[in-house]
């Protein structure tokens, strides 16, 4: 449909999109559905290319991971959005339908119209290149915006496949995909966009927000966190529940080689159950990845720097007294081969203390810190003091202990008895709080993030609100207002005496 | 209840509030209602003191303005919030009640819990010191947060009355009011708060957001704008509609001496009707403020700098060729007296061009720029290119022309046929977009702004989501996923052929 825009200066793309936005006004529901279909088709019809290019960019990534976590996730979101966008677009009634109708009879026509913001920027990330970049872009389109996407510089092959697919399906006025290095990202964050959506680290998120502040561009920041898991005493006491919990924690820790913003870094286990928990974790890993060198079984770490970073976290912990348990004993040759392939064997660390870097850094690798506890209240107190993670997970029944865990900790979401159920089910708001981010998306939350809820109110009344605040020689209004305030003061005093 | 906190370092107040927040967890509905009552009582029971102190801080401000715009507005918001907070707090069901119940039967318990953020900071402004500072604080309390308020340094008397009233009603752990100069404001914006709410200028808002970025503190920014008014041709052609429109524009321009973030700076009038429109504006001003020196009739400008700023805008426009029409001819002595009292006579400016400062600056004084037009489409195009204002106002029927105005311009809200109906009715979201701000409050919008919508999802299913993304020797899942994607691709292709 149009030339690839990576050659066009991005400020020109912005101008093109902004002019088109003003020229055309908010798109109809039919046009939005058409855009959603084109978007989804561009992704799913290139799923083989995406599987191959993501795998090439990572070093290796299993087909099932890309098809489920990236392609299918986007497809499900597209269908949900397509089915609901007509309803989400409709004017909302802050006084309810009945209140709104009554107001209208009385001469006040009151609506809140979800309105597109203009040109939305989406800064992508490499770990789930389609899921975390395409879903926000899709929501922004559905909300009637023009969209500029910046792909992560760590996935050049994927970016090219994705950009070509999108530019075949969209005019640059509607959607543009930019590629390029960190300089381009900096320039992108400094554009005078109408909203900037970013997924990545807290450090970069902070810089992005500061850049956006110059243009008063609102931001959504999807960051990460340590994503603690608590194994309740009840679960620890039930052998099959315990085994299931350990297996789910184990699998979630190695999915995408731990390069997942909702992946658990820390698990808290009742002291007596720790040994058997660790054993079950290794059993699960052994079942799932019996042979690391069977290439198609694991995702590799994204680059050498990432590999070295995780190894350094492990070595730092070991040097400071932690007990490191690797899943594989291998001779030096084996280690060399793993390092060359950027495959890190799943690892458990016991005895992590605050002095160790791993206690504070997001790991982004298949390394699980197992902590022991005596009293679950201590764990809750500890977590309450730490930065809020994207997700906190609890294994155990829906009981008062779980309620206390929910009430007294902060996190983007809470999952119980499984990995990521609070983030990956369709239609459920996904987003962090505190250090794990600001703003949410997925389903209606995404639509609302990229909409301005614009009140449109008309009056046919003979009296004006303006007269209420205008001083006048007529003191009747003043008397009425004074009486009202005095009466309300008495009401409040009666309430407080009760 | 506690010593005034202006002597306590603000970082200590933050620590106190944060510890209390973690210790107590989210407050019950009853406690929230009690806090709302205490808050409202602290304001309404001091309404005489507030009237006097605000008037002292301004120089003069009529009692009716403070009682209606500040005290009553807060009281109405408090009652609305009190009545609805129980409902707003309740868990929400992203799949609907029926979908949620079905999910639960199937083993998935899905809720979205509106959760308090922690410690919320509110930076106040002087022009409506209670309304614009107390309402966001009230919403933050209702959402279960602890609140730190920083009062504007331009209203020392008001700040003292308000702070004393609040500290009699609240423990510092619940709510603290800080006073002090711009240095204190800078320190406040740099606190590691869980949300920062600011009302003020775009320039300061940008600096506040940059400071908040360092701590990843989400911000709500309530800024301002030129708030254009369009008099449609139909209204201009109807003598009584025209008179009413002119009167409402005239009154809204001088309310609070124009020191109002939703006050109209610009009005666009059909060319043939311009003379009679200006005449009607002056007629309205003459009726309402026949004698400027009758002290209790007008609000004064907040300080000499503000007075000089507005006078400079007028003089700059005049020097560059605009026609300035003052509402009062007075000799030099009269002008001196007005300047000493900081009373600026209402003024109309015709022939404003882009070279004049007043075309770009928010006026914040009783000066109305009247522009003429031939074709309303040109006005819409012009407004679409300008920064989005807090409110855009249209005088005319609810017809396709109005619909085009709504669709093709951006603004925080749209009022039709009256001043501020889209901002001042209870329960309607209030907030800007683009240069006029980000985020909204009032009613449920305020509650949601200060809440994190936290998904809490539990699973009792025997299968885990984690297994879906884990590579396995069993390729059945991979086959199913591949087939699903291929099938969906065909569905999309069929849709596009239709």
Automatic annotation (TrEMBL), chains A, B:
Pfam families in the record? Aldedh (PF00171)
Q: Does the keyword Calcium apply?
A: no
Q: Where is the active site?
A: 222, 261
UniProt GO molecular function: aldehyde dehydrogenase (NAD+) activity
- Keyword set includes Oxidoreductase: yes
Q: Which InterPro entries match?
A: Ald_DH/histidinol_DH, Ald_DH_C, Ald_DH_CS_GLU, Ald_DH_N, Aldehyde_DH_dom, Aldehyde_DH_NAD(P)
Q: Where is the Aldehyde dehydrogenase domain?
A: 28-456
Q: Which UniProt keywords apply?
A: Oxidoreductase
Which regions span the lipid bilayer?
none
Please state which protein family the record places this protein in.
Belongs to the aldehyde dehydrogenase family.
Under PANTHER family, the record lists: ALDEHYDE DEHYDROGENASE (PTHR43570), ALDEHYDE DEHYDROGENASE TYPE III, ISOFORM Q (PTHR43570:SF16)
Q: What is the protein name stated in its UniProt record? A: Aldehyde dehydrogenase
Q: Which species does the entry assign this protein to? A: Occultella aeris
Question: What gene name is given for the protein in this entry?
Answer: calB
């Amino acid at each position: 449909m149009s030339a690839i825009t990576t050659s066009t200066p991005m400020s020109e793309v912005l101008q093109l999109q902004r002019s088109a936005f003003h020229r055309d006004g908010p798109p109809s529901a039919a046009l939005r559905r058409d855009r959603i279909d084109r978007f989804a088709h561009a992704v799913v019809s290139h799923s083989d290319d995406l599987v191959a290019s993501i795998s090439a960019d990572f070093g290796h990534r299993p087909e099932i991971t890309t098809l489920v976590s990236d392609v299918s996730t986007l497809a499900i979101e597209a269908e949900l959005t397509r089915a609901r966008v007509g309803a989400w677009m409709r004017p909302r009634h802050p006084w309810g339908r009945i209140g709104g109708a009554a107001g209208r009879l009385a001469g006040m026509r009151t609506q809140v119209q979800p309105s597109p913001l203009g040109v939305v920027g989406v800064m992508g990330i490499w770990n789930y290149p389609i899921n975390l970049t395409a879903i926000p872009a899709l929501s922004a389109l559905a909300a009637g915006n023009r969209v500029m996407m910046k792909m992560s510089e760590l996935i050049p092959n994927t970016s090219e496949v994705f950009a070509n697919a999108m530019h075949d399906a969209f005019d640059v006025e509607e959607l543009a995909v930019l590629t390029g290095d960190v300089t381009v990202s900096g320039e992108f964050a400094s554009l005078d966009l109408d909203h900037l959506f970013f997924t990545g680290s807290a450090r970069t998120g902070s810089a992005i927000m500061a850049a956006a502040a110059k243009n008063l561009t609102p931001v959504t920041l999807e960051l990460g966190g340590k994503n603690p898991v608590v194994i309740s005493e009840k679960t620890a006491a039930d052998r099959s529940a315990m085994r299931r919990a350990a297996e789910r924690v184990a699998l979630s820790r190695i999915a995408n080689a731990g390069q997942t913003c909702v992946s658990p870094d820390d698990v808290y286990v009742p002291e007596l159950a720790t040994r058997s928990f660790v054993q079950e974790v290794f059993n699960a890993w052994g079942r799932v990845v019996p042979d690391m060198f069977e290439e198609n079984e694991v995702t590799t770490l994204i680059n050498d720097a990432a590999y070295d970073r995780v190894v350094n976290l492990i070595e730092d912990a070991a040097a400071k007294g932690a007990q490191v348990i690797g899943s594989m004993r291998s001779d030096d040759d084996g280690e060399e081969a793993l390092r060359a392939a950027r495959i890190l064997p799943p690892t458990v660390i016991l005895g992590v203390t605050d002095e160790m870097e791993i206690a504070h850094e997001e790991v982004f690798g298949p390394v699980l810190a197992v902590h022991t506890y005596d009293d679950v209240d201590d764990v809750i107190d500890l977590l309450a003091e730490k930065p809020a993670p994207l997700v906190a997970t609890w294994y155990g029944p829906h009981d008062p202990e779980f309620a206390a865990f929910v009430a007294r900790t902060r996190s983007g979401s809470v999952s119980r008895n499984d990995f990521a159920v609070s983030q990956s089910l369709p239609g459920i708001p996904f987003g962090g709080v505190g250090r794990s981010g600001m703003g949410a998306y997925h389903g209606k939350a995404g639509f609302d993030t990229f909409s301005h809820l614009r009140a449109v109110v008309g009056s046919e009344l003979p009296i004006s609100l303006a007269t209420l605040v205008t001083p006048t020689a007529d003191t009747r209004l003043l008397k009425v207002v004074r009486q009202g305030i005095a009466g309300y003061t008495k009401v409040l005093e009666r309430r407080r005496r009760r």
